[in-house]
Amino acid sequence: YVGKAERSLVDRDVSDHFATNPNSRPTTGRSTVRRSFAALLREALQLRAVPRNLDNPGYFAMYGLADGGEERLNAWMHSRLTIAVWPAPANMQVRLRDVEVAAIEHFLPPVNLESNPAKLERLKRARAEMAAEAARWRTSTEQVR
Predict the structure, then answer these.
(1) Residue 142: its pLDDT value, please?
(2) What are the CB-based long-range contacts (under 8 Å, 24+) for 85-94?
(3) Which of 4, 10, 12, 94 has the fewest CB atoms in 10 Å of its CB?
(4) Is the pLDDT assigned to residue 145 strictly greater than 80?
């Protein structure tokens, strides 16, 4: 995965995406990289997609995880991933977004959908399946009816 942090690497990547801050509560519904990993690891980690806001379901492509899924995804990520950073020079003349796109186009990271010229059909299918599962979600009250 390649991503940029315009304001705070700690807030965006460390807390949101990779949940290495013990005080943070990462949510897959607010992190595209977590949604990609969740979709690819759905069966292996027994993950179920739900709307990211259970009180106001919608935006199902931004699905969250049910029943301990966040914790299982965190454990998998912490045991297998590392984070590397490149600090942009203070006087950089190129937009950071342009650097990010160039890195994605060069490295073809398997969980970056945006700006990635690789097909990534498996990832697109897996994310669509999770979004469809979130769209089928019903409250326990609705399921009883």
Answers:
(1) 54
(2) 85/9
(3) 94
(4) no
